[in-house]
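Lay summary. Proteins are chains of building blocks that fold into shapes, and those shapes determine what they do. In this project we predict the shape from the chain. Here is one chain we studied, written as its sequence of building blocks.
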Amino acid sequence: MIKENRASKYLLYAIGEIILVVIGILIALSINNWNEKQKDLKQEQLILKQLKSEYQSNLVQLEEKILMRNQGLEACNNLLNQIDHPESINEGELYKSLSLIMRDPTFDPIKNDIVGSEKLRLIQNQELTSILSNWSSEVYQVQELELEYKKFRTEIIIPCYIRLGVSRNLNNALWKDGYTPTEALDKKYNHKFTIKPTKKDLDFLKVLNDVELEGIIGQVITFNQITNLQSQTLRDRIINMLAVIENEIDKE
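And here is the predicted shape, written in a compact code that computers can read:
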């Protein structure tokens, strides 16, 4: 009986030891998991702050491109008004408007390595991960339209200007009083130089009566309107994304 009593005590002691070891392992795992979770949360915050900075820059750039296309639409309206009312020809406004529709705004957002990487799993907000996952394909749709316009500008608009004989005067009007492009990286610089206008006589009525030019203006309006509609959708995506990010970033 004494031996059996001792055996029972040893058995209970052994079981107690095992339980303590298991509890110790579970506590260690729990602490480790907590530490890993804290590391993931800190990493998530860094990613969110990076995304906030990047998409704020993307928003500024996108709004700049929308503005450029809106300026192009205003220029088209000005040109059509002069075409419809040739008695009100304004040489300065004509060249300014022709130069505005010759620009080709292109949106080139900051690209990051978050989508398609392990970093994406660290973002807990599912709405945000969904927006990020769809971002590239939506940007591509806008860029496709911009590439079409770039081709149209190179192959149609510029050759038409050259044929009409207005290119030299147009570029002289653009630069003679100083010019800072809307898309300039540093807008403090104002570039100024003189090409001097052509010595040849230009028939502005002939220019305004050109059927190809009138058709180009109509096409530019359609290009800019459609691209701006798509760009506005992208703008809404960015604004929504920034609002979600702001809510996810710690206020500490």
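What the prediction tells us: The two ends are 66 Å apart (CA to CA).
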